[in-house]
Every structure is written in structure tokens, then in C-alpha cells.
Design a protein that fits this description.
The chain is an alpha/beta fold. The protein contains 15 helices and 22 strands. The chain binds NADP nicotinamide-adenine-dinucleotide phosphate. InterPro entries: Ald_DH/histidinol_DH (IPR016161), Ald_DH_C (IPR016163), Ald_DH_CS_GLU (IPR029510), Ald_DH_N (IPR016162), Aldehyde_DH_dom (IPR015590), ALDH-related_metabolic_enz (IPR051020), Lactaldehyde_DH (IPR053404).
């Protein structure tokens, strides 16, 4: 819909506010031919990006950050309306986006190769862009996750075609307006950045298949990630996918702190966070105390209007998603789960639920992506690690213990992309390597690491010198 510097404005897809359920926008849905055209335009502009000096790439990113910074409140409010995220959490997303843009700008000037000693002459390497980056993003962090792809892509001199989720596309449209403005100010052809809104099954699918795309940078569900991986064939692909992130609580830890951390992180964005707590594995000696604190903390949470500054939990992205969570709770209970609090649904809102489960329960096996905190009692750390590793996922794990030697041993044993000690799994800094193993993904994000993924190493050897 923003292709080659022109906006294509149609009313193809209705976008809803997940809290009021009102239709807030109608957006363009590109068909396959239009998507192919958007990719072709991006491809035609790749040399322009490649030839932009590091200073210019730096300047684009810093200027985008400057404009975003002057509209922080507007962007935070837009995220809350688009996604249903509580406003205090949306503000954090905007701040993190600014960090991601500035870090990307830094790396635009920091791209460097190396020299290799050789008796045959001089060997050195250069970092080069890949060409066209096809960025596909999910609904839950529509600004920050888009920037985690756009920022490093620009820093490394790639042109970009972005497909934001049609469930929450508005923020990406406003971000594109800023990028358009900055490119115009700097007299850079707008076709270096194109926004392809529409349905993922058409637009995202075409991006993953199209031969003019050099790399697909995808964040979203395992199911779509697998389809992208098949379609992409020889293209470079990074996949940031879902998980059932375990949090292990051992008896020697600060139990109150662990309970507070579990509740605070589990119910962020109504549980719609890829590194949300999947299940808490608690040593049996402390499970009663832990559960008591968890219930106390859960009762304090305020459910409701995302625009209210006191709200802790807003709606899920749609009534259908909330219904899915309601049904999951029913299934968990039918399998022996004990619902301790919450789980009541009203349209897209679900009150925060805490459930005691065992290892065979559905909630121990899947990514819920909703406000359910399952607690599972374990005999000891060995059993906790076995349950944690008996999973098809491997994104992040949390571990509470006051024994550093044990913590290091368990960190080695856990088959996860990131281990958070004395924290829930829900921790991410924009400059740390981030990504999963097993079905949770392929490759790493985190600006420096995405810069690596989005650039190619060229080796030059000078003989006879
Ligand atoms: P999703 O349904 O997989 O959608 C993600 C993106 O893929 C959207 O832009 C979607 O477009 C597009 N898409 C849909 N079908 C496609 C296809 N066949 N080919 C190519 N693209 C396609 O995920 P979501 O519901 O938006 O987000 C939730 C998931 O994302 C969860 O599993 C969560 O764990 C994961 N996630 C992971 C991370 C991470 O960094 N590891 C971060 C955030 C979220 P449409 O929406 O228009 O269909």
C-alpha cells in the first residue's frame, strides 16, 4: 500500500479495536500481482541502498527516531487501540523502539570486516548487504518488532518490503509515514522502503516465495514459520517463533519475588508475548507458598480499558482469541487441571487465570498466548529440567534459585535459546541476542545480531603485493 513512494488506499480489510470491537480503520489488501510489484520495486531500489554511505544510513535511522520521539504519546495510544495493549505497556514499546532505532544507527557506522594474516598476500573481508529484505511481523509488538527488522536492514544497506499483521496494521502505516517523510527530506527514492499490507496468506506467502527477495525475516507462529521455511528454498531465513517458556522455582529461592515476577510477566499484553511464562515448575516444598503469593498478586491486577493508565490487562486481539483461551481452560480442567482463579470471559477480555496442572495437561505442551498461568509441582530440579526439555519449543526459560553453582549447571542443561536466572523467561533487551532452538526458531535477532544476519561477508584477497 506504500509502494514506490505512492500510497494505494482502498477499503479492503476492516481493522477492529479489540476492546470496543468498533471498526476503526479500513486498509488496503494487496493481491498477489500487487505484492509481486511491491517486491519488484524493492528489488529495483536495492542498489540505491547499497550505495548509500554509512553516514546517510545512520542519518535516516536517527531522523526516524527523532520524529518518532516527538510523537511518542500518539504512537503509544495507537498501539493500545490497534492491539489492545495497556497504555503503560505501549509506552514501553515505543521507548524500546527508539532504542532499537538508535542501536541500528550505531551499527550503520560500525559495519566492519577483518584482515587475515597470510603468506600469500592480503586477505580482508567486507560486510555487504543481502539486497531485498522481506520483513513479516506479528500483531503483538507491531512497532518494536517491525523496527527490529527495518532498523538493521537499513543499517546494512538493504531495501525493505514490510508486511505487518493484518490484525494490527495501523502502527506500521504511521511508521511508514515517518520513513516516507525522512526519505523525502534526504532526497532518497522512496522505493527503498515499501509497505505491503493485506492478508498474510497472500502477501506474506508471496514474500516468502518470490525470487527477488534475498532474505525473509519472520516473526510469528511456528505454523506460519514452517510454511515460510518451505517456501523460501535457498533464501536466507530467520524465524522468531513461539514457545512454552518454563519458569523453574527452586526451594532455595526468594519465593515471593518469584511469584511477583511470574504474575507480572505472565499477564503482560494479556499473555500475548512470545516469551510469556508457559508454565511454572515449582519444587513441592514451596509450591503452597508460591501459589498463595501468585493468587494475592493476581487479585491486584486491573482488567479493562487499555487506554486507562491503571489497566494491567487489556483484551486479547479478538473475541475469537479469547474464546480459544476460554476453551483451553475448559480442556485443561477436563484433563484434571484445577482452576484457582480467573478465566472468565467477556467479549475479548479474559480475567487472569491461574491453574494447577500436571505434565500431561494440554497447558504443559502448547503455547497458550493468553492470560493463563499454569503451575506444576515437581520433586526436584532434575524433574523440572526434564519437563522443561521435554518440549518441542526452546525459546527462553527462567530459573529462580539462590545457588549460583546449581544455576549454572541448570543453565547448561536447559535446551533453550536464553536462560534468565532469578527472572521469569519474559526478559529481553534490544541489544541482546534473542531467538530460540527447536521449533522456536532459527537465527538470532537483537540489533547487532540481526545486522550479522542481514549482511554477507565478502572476502577479498590481494596476491603479489
Ligand atoms: P502469525 O499468525 O504467525 O502471523 C505472523 C505474520 O505472518 C503476520 O504478518 C501474518 O499476516 C503473516 N502470515 C500469515 N500467514 C502467512 C503465510 N502463509 N505466509 C507468510 N506470512 C503469513 O502470528 P501472530 O498471531 O501475528 O503472532 C503470534 C505469534 O507470534 C505467537 O506464536 C508468538 O509467539 C509469535 N511471536 C514470536 C516472537 C519472537 O520474537 N520469537 C515475537 C512475537 C510474537 P496476517 O496477520 O495478515 O495473516
Amino acid at each position: 500500500m506504500f509502494i514506490d513512494g505512492k500510497w494505494i488506499i482502498r477499503e479492503d480489510i476492516d481493522v477492529f479495536d479489540p476492546y470496543t470491537l468498533e471498526n476503526i480503520e479500513k486498509i488496503t489488501a494487496l493481491d498477489r500481482e500487487e505484492t509481486k510489484n511491491a517486491i519488484e520495486v524493492t528489488e529495483k531500489h536495492k542498489e540505491i541502498m547499497k550505495n548509500l554511505s554509512p553516514s546517510k544510513r545512520y542519518k535516516i535511522l536517527m531522523k526516524v527516531a527523532e520524529h518518532l520521539s516527538s510523537k511518542k504519546d500518539f504512537f503509544a495510544k495507537t498501539i493500545s487501540i490497534d492491539v489492545g495493549k495497556p497504555i503503560k505497556q505501549s509506552k514501553i514499546e515505543v521507548d524500546r523502539t527508539l532504542t532499537a532505532l538508535k542501536l541500528s544507527a550505531f551499527y550503520a557506522k560500525e559495519l566492519r570486516g577483518e584482515t587475515i594474516n597470510s603468506e600469500n598476500g592480503l586477505i580482508f573481508t567486507k560486510k555487504e548487504p543481502l539486497g531485498v529484505i522481506g520483513a513479516i511481523t506479528p500483531f503483538n509488538f507491531p512497532l518494536n518488532l517491525a523496527t527490529h527488522k527495518i532498523g538493521p536492514a537499513i543499517a546494512t544497506g538493504n531495501s525493505v518490503v514490510l508486511h505487518p499483521s493484518s490484525k494490527a496494521p495501523i502502527v506500521a502505516i504511521y511508521l511508514t509515514k515517518i520513513i516516507e517523510h525522512v526519505l523525502k527530506q534526504m532526497d532518497i527514492p522512496r522505493g527503498v522502503f515499501n509497505l505491503a499490507t493485506g492478508n498474510g496468506e497472500i502477501v506474506g506467502d508471496e514474500i516468502s516465495k518470490n525470487d527477488n527477495v534475498n532474505m525473509v525475516s519472520f516473526t510469528g507462529s511456528v505454523e506460519v514459520g514452517e510454511s515460510i521455511s518451505k517456501n523460501a528454498k535457498m533464501k536466507k531465513v530467520t524465524l522468531e517463533l513461539g514457545g512454552n517458556n518454563p519458569m523453574i522455582v527452586l526451594k532455595d529461592s526468594d519465593i515471593k519475588l518469584a511469584a511477583k515476577s511470574a504474575v507480572k510477566s505472565k499477564f503482560l499484553n494479556a499473555g500475548q508475548v512470545c516469551i510469556s511464562v508457559g508454565q511454572v515448575l515449582v519444587e513441592e516444598e514451596v509450591v503452597e507458598t508460591f501459589t498463595k503469593y501468585v493468587i494475592e498478586e493476581t487479585k491486584k491486577l486491573i482488567l479493562g480499558n487499555p487506554l486507562d493508565k491503571n489497566t494491567d490487562i487489556g483484551p486479547l486481539i479478538s473475541p475469537e482469541s479469547a474464546l480459544r483461551i476460554e476453551n483451553l481452560i475448559k480442556q485443561s480442567v477436563s484433563e484434571g487441571g484445577e482452576l484457582l482463579i480467573g478465566g472468565n470471559r467477556q467479549n475479548s477480555l479474559i480475567s487472569p487465570a491461574v491453574i494447577n496442572i500436571d505434565e500431561e495437561n494440554i497447558l504443559s505442551k502448547i503455547e497458550t498466548f493468553g492470560p493463563i498461568l499454569p503451575i506444576l509441582t515437581v520433586k526436584d530440579s532434575e524433574e523440572a529440567v526434564n519437563i522443561a526439555n521435554n518440549s518441542k519449543y526452546g525459546l527462553q526459560a527462567g530459573l529462580f534459585t539462590n545457588n549460583i553453582n546449581n544455576a549454572m549447571k541448570i543453565a547448561d542443561e536447559l535446551e533453550y535459546g536464553g536462560i534468565m536466572i532469578n527472572s521469569s523467561p519474559t526478559f529481553r533487551k534490544d541489544n541482546m541476542p534473542f531467538g530460540g532452538v527447536k521449533k522456536s526458531g532459527l537465527g538470532r535477532e537483537g540489533i547487532k545480531y540481526t545486522v550479522e544476519e542481514m549482511s554477507e561477508t565478502k572476502t577479498v584477497v590481494i596476491h603479489n603485493i
